[in-house]
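@channel anyone free to eyeball this complex?
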Amino acid sequence: MTIIEKTEALTFQDRAGSRRATKMIRDWALPILILMVFLVASVSVPEFYKFETIRAILLATSIIGIIAVGMTAITLSGNLFSLGVSASAVFSGVIYIWVGHSTGSMYIAALAAIAAAVVLGIVQGFIVGLGLNAVIVTLAAGSIIYGVTAIMTKGEVVQAESASLEGFATFQLFGIPLPIYIFILFTALAWFLTEHTLIGRNVHLLGSNRHTARNSGISTMGTTIWAFTAFSLGIGIAGVLQASQMHQIQADNLSGLTMDVVAAVLVGGTAVAGGDGSPIKSAIGALFIATITQVMVLLGIDQGPRYFVLGVVVVVLVIVLHLLRKAGAR
Amino acid sequence: MKNQVPLRLRATGISKSYGAVSALADVNFELRAGEVMALLGENGAGKSTIVKVISGLIAPDHGEITIDGEVAHIASVRASQEAGIAVVQQEFSTVGTMSVAENLVLGQSDAPGWWNPRLLIEQAKPILARVGLEDIDPRRLVDTLSIAEMQLLEIARVLAKDAKIVIFDEPTAALSDAEIVRVLDAVKRLASEGRSVIYVTHRLGEVFEIADRVTIFRNGRSAAPHSVSDLTVDLVVERMIGRELGHLYPPRSQSFGEPILETMGLKVPGIQGEINLAVRRGEILGLTGQLGSGASEILKAISGVADVLAGEVYLDGASVDLRGRRRGIGAGIAYCSPDRKKDGIFSGLSIQRNLSSPWLRRVSLGGFVKRAQETSEATRSASNFAIDTDRLNALVGTLSGGNQQKVAVGKWLGIRPRILLVEEPTRGVDIGARAEIYAQLRRLSDSGVGVIVASSDTNEILGLSDTVVTYYRGRQTANKPVQEWTEPALVREVMHREVQES
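replying in thread with the prediction:
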């Protein structure tokens, strides 16, 4: 007999309930995971809960996090990632130190560095807005920016000669360094902008369905340029903070940064396809990446195995998130 | 059973419901060996649902299918294929960057592990000859074929599977007359080899040319099959459409006011000649024709989605700049595309975010969205369109087709439209939501919004619009008040011109 029984036993209400459940898991999986990493670390790493350790983790988080939060705009808009993070951040750092030397003001230097990053971002956003693939454009742009930086600096280390440029990194409030405050502020601002402004909402709409967005009168070009502007703001700020922390910078620096930032956005849970995600998720993702990296450093694990573990963790998390998203959309 | 020809396939008592909507109600269907059985019916009548049941895409709630007298368990597409059933889809499953010969083995279960080019070409030749593609070099890339040749290749792919039952789902929808002949020849050849063919179509001319029998679907029920020789076009049309329309379509307005939108000498790619149309206050203008008739292109051009070659569009007497969709929206032109999933909704976003997407700018101040105003206006749009206002945070992708369509149309209320252009307003929409959408379109028209509907569903066009304009192959063929049309006349106008002309 072919009396086929109804396989769809779940009613709509049940499905709505299970959708909510998978969304809960998606939203809370990472914070819980970070907590678990902290717990494991507190047992296995001696003196993990020292104030200096936590501060170091947060400092590392702030550089990755500021860029990841900016990158979220690109990912949300449906343009995947920028793969030119390292080169762009180093370029901004170089500008910071150079302008700092010639003007003597770290504020003017910071503004110049951020402006330079934004100009580069707008150019890339324009090219992507024309319809070119973001990954290819930013990869090529990153290579060009790296090349220009290396030529300008003749491949040498750019040294901050006076201590006046360290201000952004050394300033502390209640024992917590300024970059951490900047990171939190930048994240909050990015969240507000994505949720409450026309541009932020258009970024979301464009990433969700670019054809519908176009029919709804949303400009692909304008919105893409704004997304890249937000990203390059993060790059500029991070470049300044990095340069003032290290007092020096070189074209070859920050080589692992692109991977760390992309990983932060991915494990944070922003959809690669766009339209679904949040800068706050990416900030939490950055905290996760920085934490496990730092814990491994404290455990004395070498760079090779560290990258290996990081890569495996990212892949596993991204697969789990993908499966959860599919379950939630059913 | 009085007939002597053995039954290849028999489906008895097939039912399928989606919630309260019954897609198939106790449907019986039979197919003899070596016959071409045409499935006819309006959109939503159940023909595509029964095809999906037979091909294993959906499981019926009740019913039994037997093949060659034995009960068949068709629980999946694979089971259907193993039972000897093959489907020629409307969408091509060929890979454009591979050769014709490669496409013939692609995805076949008995495909060789190692593709020896010479062997593939030798295998391909007889299969291609059977669909009339013997002139095609098997080494050619599929991308270089014409649409008709691709359709024939699609049929050849099915032949490579050696199926007993071949289902065609509107194989000629996108083809020209000369190309259709080649496809029909291939279908006839299949039947002459003893295979059974189920042929779903909207074109009545084809039915009389190739089908042996016809099963007509209406409202999820099927009639007993008729021999084509016992039927006439008028009889078929009557059986397809004979149902009460009264409550589905809202009452028409009695008089029309000034023109809201006029096109003067408009020229659009894909349409021959100038387009001179007018919509008056209180009037719903219906454009209809088959796929590719050009009705769709006109709406796309007026909305600013597609380019205009020449001519002017006037809104309340003032010329409108149509370069780009944003200007169109600024002028108060709302446009709903025919394919809501592709470019009508944001399925990953909430109902509210969808509803507010075209008019966010209007509820923003200095770039900041006024959330309270957004919510209150979205709620108003939703309640106007009978969308549950308690579920504004639900993702649109999780809604039924009817509710998705209500969102796709309802989002335009917020731009305070002066003109609403809707393509295929009820494609894939259940009957309840259809009535709500029709009522809302009429209400908008009564409130002074110009409404133009383009639809390939002639029943819908007749029930909803005040003036009906027909298109055929990029040409306007008639423009008359709805009172001067009868449904058979309209069906013949859009489907049957080929018969009249030849």
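from a first look: The two ends of chain A are 30 Å apart (CA to CA).
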